[in-house]
Amino acid sequence: MVLPVLPLVPMPRTADLQAGWLPLTDVVRVLGDTTAAAGLITAIEHRCGIRLQADGDAATGGITLRVDPRVADAEGYTLQIAESIEVVGADAAGLYYGIQTLLQLLRETDAGWGWSHVEVADAPRFAYRGVMLDVARHFFPVAEVKAVIDRIAALKFNHLHLHLTDDQGWRLHIDAWPLLSEKASTSSANGDSAGFYSKDDFREIVAHAASRHVTLVPEIDLPGHTHAVGVAYPELVEEPVITDQLRADAAQLGQELPIMGEPYIGTSVGYSSLRIGEERTYEFVRDVLTELSELTPGPYLHIGGDESRGTTAEDFAFFVERVSEMVMALGKIPVAWHEAGAVEKIAPGTYGQYWGMLDPTDAHAAEVAHIVEQGGRLILSPADAIYLDIKYDEDFPLGLTWAGTVDVRRAYEWEPTSLLDLPADAIAGIEAPLWTETVHTLEDADQLLYPRIAAVAELAWSAPDATGRGWGSFRARVGQLAPLWRADGIRFHPTAEIDWRER
Questions:
Q1: Angle formed by the axes of helices 279-295 and 199-211, to 10°?
Q2: 373 an active-site residue?
C-alpha cells in the first residue's frame, strides 16, 4: 500500500515515498536509545493499543533509535522505513523529532496498523520555533501547560513563551514579594479561573519541557500591563491612566474601568505603569528577575515592553535601558516586544519580538531595525497572520478581530524573510502567540490553536524550497493528521479549508 500524500507536517527537507508496507505488530522490538525508546513505546500504545518491547541488547530488530552527529545539522535526523525502521538523530532533539515524524506516518488500514516505506532526511530552517501561552488572563494549571508542551513538541516547536503577568493577574510565586501570589493571582480576565505557580510547579513545567526538547521563555510584562502588581504592592504602580479611548473600549465591552489597588477583570490595555522614578521599583524588578532567572535554565528572559501607554517615552526609555542591562547582568538574553526598539540605549544583543502587521508601519520597521543594529535578533509574530487568538472568520465563536481574521491559508502563506527589510540572519525564528481573553478551557485553546499551529510549524521548520511544500500539499497533509490529533485528545477546529480524514 502506498499513500498518495505523506501525512507529514512540517514538511521534511526530503521525503522519498517508496513501494512497500511494514506492518506493526507486538513482536516488533525497539532498540537503541533507552529514553527515546520508552517515549516511542508509550506513544504507539496510546495511539493504537499495541505494546512494543524495548530490547537494548539485541543486535537486530524492528525499530532502531540512535544518535549520530554526522547525519544532519542540529536538531536534524534521518528516517528509513523498509523491512525495518531506523531513526538517527544528529542529537537528542533530532532523534525526538525523527520519532515524531515516525508517529505521523503510522497509519491504520484495513490490514491493520503500519507504515509505508519511506526515506526522510530533515533539519529545521529556524533555530527558534515558538508558541506563546498567555496564562495571565486565563490561568492554565500545570497539567494543562504540560499538555500544551506535548502538543507543540509533536509539531517540532522548541520554545514555549509563558506570558506570566499582566493587568489581570500575576502567576508566579516570588519569595521576596509574597503578596504577588497571595493577592495578585486571584483574578483573571472576565472573572475566569485564576491561580499561580509555586516554584516547584514552575520547576515541574521546566523539566517536562526539557524532556520534550522545549525551552521555556518566561515573560514578566513591564513597565505596563502591571495593574496586578498594584493589587499586591500599590506603592509600586501609578494611578491608571483613564483615556477617552479606554472609556469607549470599556463601554463597548460592558466592562468596568480599572481602579488602583483593586483586581481588574476587564480586557482593555495601555493604562498601567510601574513608578519609573522610584528606586523601590528597581529593587522589585531585580528581585523578580533574579528569582525567575534561577528557575529558568534557558537563555531568555522576556521583559515585555508592549503597549506602555501609561508611561512617557522618556520614562519608558530609562526603564528599558536599565532593565535590559539588568537581564544581561543575570547572564540571560533579554527579549522584549518590538516597541522596545524605540529605546536608543537598549542593551546590545536584546532580542525583539515583532507583533505588528504583515504590512509594517514605518515606526515598527524603525524599531526592529534598531534592535538589529544593536546586535539583537528578531522573533516574528505578525498579528494578522499568526496571532492564534484572532478569529478564523467573523462568525467563529472564540477569538478577537482587532487584527482582522486569520484562516489557515493566511497563517500559512507568508514568507518570514520578506516581512521586514532586514538580513535573513537577523531572524531568530517564528512564534505564534495565543492570548486568552476569550479562552475558558483547554478545549477552547485547542480550537484556536489547531489547525493554524500546524501552518506556523511548517513555516518555522521547513525550507521554503522543500520538495512538496505549498498550500495545496499542506492542506492535504494536515488533513491526514486528524486521526493522530483525535487520539491525542486535541479538539481541533474542523475548518472547511481542510479535507479531514477519519483514519
A1: 50
A2: no
